[in-house]
Amino acid sequence: MEEKMTVNKIKQLLTERRLAELKDLIGELHPADFSEIAEELSLAELIEIFKLIPDREKIAEYISELPFELQSDLLKAMSKEQASEVLTEMDTDEAVDLLAEIAPEESQEFLGLLPQDEAAEIKELMKYEENTAGSIMNNEFVSLPEHLTAAQAIEYIRQMSPEAEMIYYVYVLDQKKRLIGVLSLRDLIVADPQKKITQIMEEDVISVLDTEDREVAARLISDYDFLAIPVINKQGMMVGIITVDDIIDVLEEEVTEDIHKMVGSAEFYEDKLIKATPLSRAKARLPWLLVCMIGEIISGSVIEFHSGILEVMVALAFFIPIIMAMGGNVGAQSSTITVRGLATGQLRLHEMWQNVWTETKVGFFIGITVGVIISILTYFWQNNYILGLTIGLSLCITIITAATVGTLLPLVFTKLNIDPAIATGPFITTVVDIGSLIIYFSLGTFLFVYLGRL
Q: Which of 73-77, 221-225, 231-235 has the highest mean pLDDT?
């Protein structure tokens, strides 16, 4: 409601040309709040607003929070001089993200507006593969040569690092630019001014390789509660840092992407989901649904194959939905827990069989409990102890199997370097549906035949 009122107020001030009031109103907005409002305004209105802001750094902060497509449109609508100034003021990692998302020809056009050294830095960062630590790092960090004292280091930072994104951590490099230590700004301030920084720095530095997956960096920052983590190359040279605000964005994106993979719509996540056309959304979801349809046709074939026992014991048909639903639910639970555990690092591949065995035992306890309950209910409902025994045993075995398969599949997929998120949702449900019907009818046939009821 407040956002809508702000949008209306901005539009009113623009219409009435009360630009001084508008400038004050915009100046009070946080960049994140402005991004929500900006999507309700036209491109022409946004251009008019940015003309009121003389501070290019402030404009860069506002633009950085907007969707990439809108960022590109705004920069193209500016004069070349203004666009160059705004891009220069943007954090390097944010400029890289923007240029990587837009069309290559537009990217080259924007790079041509930048000073040569700045363009070279951005091009170097754009060489990193998507989803690597290097692709999200910022190369603006505070580093010190190892020979300085604490007092000299403070003066060095004051003179050399006014534009650094983060000065909570100060990194110590040797003559070959290799990372040899780290210290906090607090450590530096409270240290004896004449003490060498090599005497107060932490030598056991936790870092991440620039070619490693960005999730490794996210896990380290989360585990150690860092505000930033240094990024090094294979030679041990420090090339950048990844800050906690970048990691929050990464975690949100990874979780969103995994959720879409789990339900078979991985093509759309982030802003693509909202802006995609109905036809595009349908095309993204159809492949998995067709796989599910084929799976359910196989399930129907299993039922048809056992139609003989259904003709003799019609009550077996009453419990098909229960068997399939319970198996699918347990399988989906197990696979989701496993995929999430793998994503957060709580589950390790070297503990694969231990994890499978643990989840199988969980399935056993659930299966026994549910099996006993359904057996008793079936007996009193149908007045048939063999039917109750069939339903109870089938459900118990189905749940144990579903828990095992739901845990095993994501682990196997990970071992094969296949994204484990696809082993959940529609996939696991289809597999368990087929398996549960085979278990149900096979056990039903066996019990009825060998207990003399057929």
A: 231-235
DSSP annotation string for 283-344: HHHHHHHHHHHHHHHHHHHHHHHTHHHHHH-GGGGGGHHHHHHHHHHHHHHHHHHHHHHHHH
Q: Residue 406 pLDDT more than 60? A: yes
pTM: 0.66
CA 168, 174, 177, 179: dihedral to nearest 10 degrees? -50
CA dist list (Å): 318 to 241, 367, 382: 61, 19, 11
Domains of the chain from N-terminus onward? 2-127 (1.25.60.10), 143-251 (3.10.580.10), 272-450 (1.10.357.20)
Banded pLDDT at 403 (limits 50, 70, 90): very high
Of 67, 38, 69, 32, whose CA–CA distance to 245 is shortest? 32
What is the DSSP code (8-state) at residue 108?
H
CB 229 within 8 A of CB 204: no
CB-based contact 231:238 (threshold 8 Å) = yes
Identity of the residue numbered 448? F
- Exposure string over 165-197, b if 16+ CB within 10 A, otherwise e: bbeebbbbbeeeeebbbbbbbebbeebeeeebb
pLDDT digits (tens, 9 = 90+) for 97-155: 888 777 788 788 888 878 888 888 888 888 888 889 998 898 888 899 999 999 999 99
Dihedral sign for Cα atoms in the order 175, 177, 178, 182: positive
| Contact present, 226 and 236 (Cβ < 8 Å) | no
CA distance 353 to 290: 32
- Do residues 77 and 41 touch, judged by C-beta distance below 8 A? no
- Listed residue (250, 189, 253, 265) closest to 220, CA to CA: 250
Per DSSP, the three-state class of 171 is: strand
38: Cα separation from own chain's centroid: 25
312 CB neighbour count, 10 Å cutoff:
10
- pLDDT tens digits for 351-368? 778 888 999 999 999 999
By CB neighbour count within 10 A (0-12 exposed, 13-18 middle, 19+ buried), where does 155 fall?
exposed
C-alpha–C-alpha distance, residues 157 and 335, integer Å: 50
Question: Could you give the CA distance from residue 243 to residue 137 in angstroms, rounded to a whole number?
Answer: 8
